[in-house]
Amino acid sequence: MKRLFIQTAVILIMGAIASLSAFAQGVAPSRLIPEKDANAAGLTRAWYAQATLDRNIEEVSSATMQDGLLLVTTTDGNLQAFDAETGNTLWVVSVGDEYLLPPAANSQVVAAVCGTTLTIYERSSGKVLDRSELPGQPSSGPSLSDRNCFIPVFSRKILSYPIEKDKNELLTQDKTVESMKALIEDNKTAGSELLAKFDETTRKSEERYIIKPLNEMQPFQTATFGIAFMAPVIGTQTYPQDVLGWTTDEGALLLSNYQRNEGDTPFKLLYKLTARSNFSFIDERRLGNKAQVPSSDLASTPFFVPEDKSEQNMRVEADRRRGGMYIIGSRSGHVYALNDVVGQLRWTYLTDTPVNERISAFGDFAFIPTYNGDYFAVALRDGKEVWKATGVKRTVASSASCLYVIDSLDRLAVIDRSSGRRVATLDVNEPKFQVFNEWNDRVYLVTADGLVQCLREIRQETPVVHRESCQQVHDRLLAELNKTDPKAQSDASKPKTNAPAAPAARPAPGAPGAPDAAASGGAPADEDPFGADAEEDPFGASADDADASSSDVEEDPFGAPADDADADAASSDADDPFAGSEDEEDPFL
Question: For the chain, what is the mean pLDDT?
Answer without folding.
Answer: 76
